[in-house]
Amino acid sequence: MDALKERIKAEGKLLGEDILKVDSFINHQVDVELMEAIGRDIAEHFQGQGVTKIFTIESSGIAPAVFAARYMGVPLVILKKRSSKTLSQNLWQTEVISYTKDVSYELTLSKDYISDQDHILIVDDFLANGEAATGALRLIRKAHATVAGLAVLIEKVYQPGRAKLEEQGVAVYAQTRISHCGEHEIVFAE
Ligand code: 5GP
After folding, report:
1. Contact (Cβ atoms closer than 8 angstroms) between residue 137 and residue 109
2. What ranges in the chain are assigned the alpha helix state H?
3. Is the CB of 65 under 6 A from ligand 1?
4. How many angstroms separate the CA atoms of 126 and 181, rounded?
5. Looking at beta carbons, which pairs linking 173-180 to residues 24 or more positions away fall under 8 Å?
6. Residue 99 C-alpha to ligand 1 middle, in angstroms?
7. Predicted model pTM
8. Alpha carbon 94 to chain centroid distance?
9. Which pLDDT tens digit goes with each residue over 90-133?
10. Quick one: how far is CA 82 from the chain centroid?
């Protein structure tokens, strides 16, 4: 997706060799118009595939996922990284290792918001090692629902996320693909 690629080129910052900081338009300040265009593009890509719900993982996937859900006309479910007093019963949970924070968390979903009739599209900001998306997939499978695919804004091609998901039969749609991060440059895969 050209608009996203241009924005990453202009404003993306490298933290070491691995982590791309996109706080000025995705992760901290949010460019709502760009998120709407991203959500519409995701909706168009998965159009006609029988998606009944979009799942995202709090918090950075929420903005694009809202627009994807709006354009597809389906509900959005936000998978939580911790349970709370209001979310303590009737749950599906699975442990996930956080890529950027190097800690693990219990990915949590209320059983009220999934059924074995659901065909779910997962939306997230980044695909790195595929841990977050694989966690979402485990929750979906625990509930005997099915997966339409995974849509991410940025795939880091040099990390094993795509291979991990495709091995499990998940179709991956990445709007931009980064083949490597040099010392001062971000190189995109074609
Ligand atoms: P994975 O679970 O695929 O290893 O990592 C995906 C999650 O880690 C995403 O939800 C995202 O929040 C975070 N993440 C992974 N790589 C990056 C990165 O380079 N930059 C930022 N900002 N987040 C990342």
Report:
1. no
2. 2-11, 32-45, 62-72, 131-142, 161-167
3. no
4. 15
5. 173/42, 173/45, 173/46, 173/149, 174/127, 175/1, 175/4, 175/38, 175/41, 175/42, 175/151, 176/1, 176/4, 176/5, 176/8, 178/8, 178/20, 178/154
6. 6
7. 0.96
8. 17
9. 999 999 998 877 789 999 999 999 999 999 999 999 999 999 99
10. 17
Asked if residue 128 has its Cβ within 6 Å of ligand 1, the reply is yes
Among 158, 111, 101, 167, which residue's Cα sits nearest to residue 132? 101
The alpha carbon of 19 and the centre of ligand 1 are apart by a number of angstroms equal to 8
Residue with tokens 């009944």, as numbered in its chain: 52
Six-digit token string for 132 = 């977050």
Residue 107: partners with Cβ closer than 8 Å, 6 or more residues away: 57, 79, 80, 81, 93, 94, 95, 96, 132, 135, 136, 139
Q: Residue 26 CA: which ligand 1 atom is closest?
A: 22
